[in-house]
Amino acid sequence: MPEAPADDPGISASAVTTLRLIAGWAFVGLALLNLAMGLDSFPYVAFHLVLLLAGLAMLGLQRVGRRPRRAAWLTGGAVAALGLVVSALPEAAVDCCSREYSVRHGFPFTMIARNPGGWHADGARILIDVLFWALAGMLVLIAVARLTPAPAGPAPARLAAPPRRAEHAEERGTRTADDENVRGLP
C-alpha cells in the first residue's frame, strides 16, 4: 500500500472536517430560513441567532486563530453546563410549547412541564436545549480563546533559509547523477 503524502491529513481528519462543514452549512441554512419566517418570540430568535453564529463559526473555524487553552475550555464548558441547568430551574415564561401545562421549565424551549396531573419531559426539546447550550458554550470558548493573550514563552524559532539553488546552466551542469532524485536515469 503506498504511503500518504506528508501533507495528507488522513481519513479521520478529513471526515471530521467534512462533518463540521456539513453541520455549519445546515445550521446557517436553518437559522436563516427560520428567521426569515418571522420573529415570534425572544427564545425563538435567541435560539436561531446562536444557531446562525455557531454555523458561521464552524464554517470559518480555520480563521478563528490559535488553539484554545485550558481557560477557554473551562469557560465554554461552564457556559454549556450551567446554562442548561440554570435555565431549567426557574419557571419559564414561554408561550410556545406545552400550552396544556401551567408550569414550564427550560430555555429556549420547554424541556420539563407540570400540570395538576403530573410532570412531562419532552425528549426532543431537551435535545434542542442541549444543542443550544453546547453551541453557546462553543461560541464563548472561541471568544475566550481569541481574547486571551498568547502564552509567554520563547519566540518561535524561524525556519532556516532553504539552500540556494543554482540559477545558471553552468552551475546546474556540475551535478552528478546521484544528485538527482531519479537516481541516475538519463
Topology:
Elements: H1 11-37, H2 42-59, H3 70-88, E1 103-105, E2 112-115, E3 118-121, H4 123-147, H5 169-172
Antiparallel strand pairs: 1-2, 2-3
Keywords: Membrane, Transmembrane, Transmembrane helix
Biased composition (Low complexity): 153-163
Biased composition (Basic and acidic residues): 164-186
Descriptive report:
It is a single chain. The chain has 186 residues and is mainly alpha-helical. It is 50% helix and 6% strand. The protein has five helices and three strands; from the N terminus they run αααβββαα. It has helices spanning 11-37, 42-59, 70-88, 123-147, 169-172, and strands at residues 103-105, 112-115, 118-121. The chain has a three-stranded antiparallel beta sheet, with no helix packed on it.
TL;DR?
With 186 residues, the chain is mostly helical. It has helices spanning 11-37, 42-59, 70-88, 123-147, 169-172; strands at residues 103-105, 112-115, 118-121. Strand 1 (103-105) and strand 2 (112-115) form a beta hairpin.
| Uncertain runs | none
- Can you count the helices? 5
Question: Span from first to last CA?
Answer: 28 Å
- SSE order: HHHEEEHH
What is the C-alpha radius of gyration, as a whole number of Å? 27 Å
> What is the 3D shape?
elongated
